[in-house]
From TrEMBL:
A GO cellular-component term linked to this record: plasma membrane
Domain of life of the organism encoding this protein: Bacteria
Protein name, UniProt field: Capsule biosynthesis protein
Entries under InterPro entries matching the protein: Bact_polysacc_biosynth/exp
Gene Ontology molecular functions: protein tyrosine kinase activity
Record organism: Rhizobium lusitanum
Region feature (Disordered): 106-130
Amino acid sequence: MPKAAIEDKTKESFTKAVSGRHLLPSLFRRRTPASRDRNDIEEIEYIPVLDGPAPKTQSGGKPPLRLLGFLLLVVLPFLASSVYYAFIASDQYVAEARFAVRSVSGSGSDADDKSDNNDTAQNTGSGVGALSMRSATQDAYVVTSFIHSSEILKRISGEIDYKAIFTKGDTDFLSRFSASEPDEEFLKYWNDHVSAYIDVSSGIITLKIRAFSPEDSVRLANAVIQESEKLINELSERARNDIVQSMKADLEKSGKTYSDALLALNQFQHTSGLLSPEAQAKDSGTILTGLLAQKLDFETRLFVMRQSNADGSPTYQQLSLAKDSLDAQIEKMKSGLTGPENASLAKALLEYSRLDTDRMIAQKLYESSQKNYDTVLAEALRKTLYLAVFVRPTLPEEAMFPRRISTPLIILLALTVAWATLSLIWASVEDHRV
């Protein structure tokens, strides 16, 4: 075909293609600002002048950027994870145990104690109430926190070399723990392989431990349960000792007050020579009454003898001497009862009454403290906490981890979503550049 004919045919096809652009829907046309004349722009056509042959399209070249990104971000990581989980990842066995923190509490209440003795119940109620505030659920949270702390690692280190379990050479390089890393990093590694959570409704603690052999997982689970039980016993004993020691301190204080009161009363009796001033005053009053009666009798007889003019007789003289002796005894007796000197019986009686009152008050306080102490001690013994293990860890027969099929599929799904998100972001950026 002649060259001129070819050029004419090429111009004709290009002209049809350009004119066909006006036939597209207005939705796909590029809009122009309203301030400009749209007719002027739409009527402009650019027809290239073809002096030479038509340009050739390249059939080969670099692959699309999206396909390359899909291969690098999705396909290669998925294949690598599939190979790792299928042939390299070490088996991990899970030992499971279930236990709960329980407390044995009595059925009595503070109101029952108050019906026995109001004063005693007021003192006892504070101790019993403090014990009642401790719930098993709170202690269960303490146990789970203890399992995920470094304290349990310190405790089990004396029985089990826990680091050697997770640093075995036959374990794959991604799963095992590096022995050169510090203890803080191992605590994070420990929390990844040990889980303990609480069922809020029942308070049951479920413990799961992952290790690279069935025996190691069971050994670690038994060690964790044993140390948790020791912790509960320590908490229970500490709470019991705190409340018992508080009541014991009150008992010792009231006992010392009572013994001091008894000692003071004993010293008074030893110093005064009176076992009971009240009894002594009563006896002295009886003797004084008898002496006064005898004096009255002597005075009557002397009066009769004087009226009979027998005041010079020997009998009268003897009666007079006897009356004088009675007067002296009566004055001495009165002086001993109410005299001003320090040895008077009235002052001794007052001091004895004060000391005896102190003794009685101290005795009542001591008896009340003793009863409170016995009550609180009984309540503390009834409310002892203990760890009830009802599902013991058994030797696992099948490795639960890694999940060799589901984990690579999840990774594939995540990578695909990430790649699609990045593609949408890239397309949005390119669209705004146009």
